[in-house]
Amino acid sequence: xxQLVESGGGLVQPGGSLRLSCAAPGNIFxxxxxxxxxQAPGKQREFVARRISSSSIDYSDSVxxxxxxxxxxAKNTIYLQMNSLKPEDTAVYYCNADCFPTDxxxxxxxxxxxx
Length: 115
Description:
Helix content: under 10%
Number of helices: 1
């Protein structure tokens, strides 16, 4: 079973920042498209951001300009830097490895934006 290990969630006030981390096995990190999804209570899981290549990243419109993906290849880890957080960003955030034709998922980490 492939393990994607997430960390970094928590409670933050509106306007604050958090950074999520996702560590993957080396072969997954190098050959799959790594990204993030989120699921708010009562809603479907939705796309947040995805690293297509080292120079190409795709973001959802709702987070564009506020969230940023980066990667540490030596650590097989991707990060999601979340700035200017809003209450509507509250959700469980899941790391995803798109290893077409299969997907791998982390266990999720809770992000709560509230005053």
